[in-house]
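haha ok so turns out i had the wrong file open the whole time. this is the CORRECT one, sorry everyone. sequence first:
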Amino acid sequence: MSNTEAWNQVMRQPAEQLYAHELEALKKADKGHVPPGWSMSPQSVLTFITGGKAGKVDITPKYIGNRRLVEMAIATLVTDRALLLIGEPGTAKSWLSENLTAAIYGHSGLVVQGTAGTSEEHVRYSWNYAMLLANGPTQQALVQSPIMRAMEAGGIARFEEISRCASEVQDALISILSEKTISVPELGQEMQARKGFSIIATANTRDRGVNEMSAALKRRFNIIVLPAPDSLDTEVEIVKKRVAEIASAYELQAAVPTDDALHKVVTIFRELRQGMTLDRKDKVKSPAGVISTAEAISLLTNSMSLAASFGGGEMTDEDLAAGLQGAIVKDDDKDRVIWQEYLDHVMKKRGVEWRGLYQACKELNG
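then structure:
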């Protein structure tokens, strides 16, 4: 089996593999200055993220939103500053982080996933304890963290959901970001970061107060806040693009959602998220769960799977209703009441175009 065939069998390809042909085309056409440790110029990285052309190759947009924010993110990584992307769930923080890393460094897999169980060893280094007991501290027994590996190679490490980590784990980054070194006293040595090293971290605005980042750590980052899509059409475009990509990757044998289905789902999500109908005439209650763009994408791909597996391959109102029920009704009793009120006071009044979806949702939520 060739490398290409092997990658095609992977459930989720990293960005550098998924868009390998685009990255190669951008490198060949690149005429800009390439910073130390980078694989292409900042202008080419911007084209990779926001879309354009590289010779005769079309570069698909990876992030649909404010172009200036992407320029600021790229400019930050040219310097010795780390980058912190902040936003609500579903604002493409991780997606942007992965694609920036793929374009700049060519390898997006050096990741620390922030959780309550993340320790300082995940940030700095640990040991192979069998080798440590047998031979004492040696270079062979040292287990480098993703951040340490990025420092050694002059690459970019990603730190996902940094505010999920305990304060002492977060603070382990301060000296790394300030001094660009990791001391290994057991070996009497220091790891010095090569040019090109940086960290892209992400944080969820819903997690503020979980483990608030210290002012000292925040000062080591340039912070960019990624907003939710500012219009219905923009959000529909994002959802349409990602649903088509995911459906292709999973080879779902169903037709992509119609524009009508996309608009209905995104309309429902925006209204429940904002607590108000789009015409601003009626207030609605918001469910406890996250009603994000990412949830809308997941809902529609699941509905496609239903249509492909147990229907005729065309998404029906019943398929959409099943997805909506699962996405919205999370805190069962409370969310069920909120969803019922939305159905009766908003969707029911929207006329014949919404009647089929309303009836299917009403039946499921009854």
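The radius of gyration is 23 Å.
again sry for the mixup
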